[in-house]
Specification:
162 residues, alpha+beta, 7-stranded mixed beta sheet, 5 helices, globular
Amino acid sequence: MHWRGLTALDLPEVEAIAAQVHPDFPEDMVVFAERQRLYPDGARLLELDGVPAGYVLSHPWHLGALPALNALLGAIPEDADTFYLHDLALLPRARGTGAAAMIVGDMLRHARANGLPSASLVAVNGSLPFWYKHGFRALKAPELEAKLGSYEAAARYMVKRF
């Protein structure tokens, strides 16, 4: 099991993994490509026995703001105050290996080392317990309800403060 930097050449694999893991949350290849290009330090690919099995896309952002699903960012804000975990996806064969906890730990250390005071995300697909275990807490944010609803009714905006 090995997490490595995600390159533009890996994007077809990311798209294929996303289609399997998040069929209800489709995003265009240009969204994946932009995230990787704008913040390569937050883009990683999981390999199991040399075969892609998962990815994470993350980047600095504004706390309390939520990029819309399948939307381009344009740029990373210079005054970012949170590290946004946009997408963590693992194929079934990678689940239970500790890979998710490993990359979450790496991304949280990266965020703290870069002076960001928090991390944030949208929890979907019943992932609330996983994120709770990693110190994230659901934040009531009525102003985000419409964007959260574009994911799914059970989507929750979660924050971990350092």
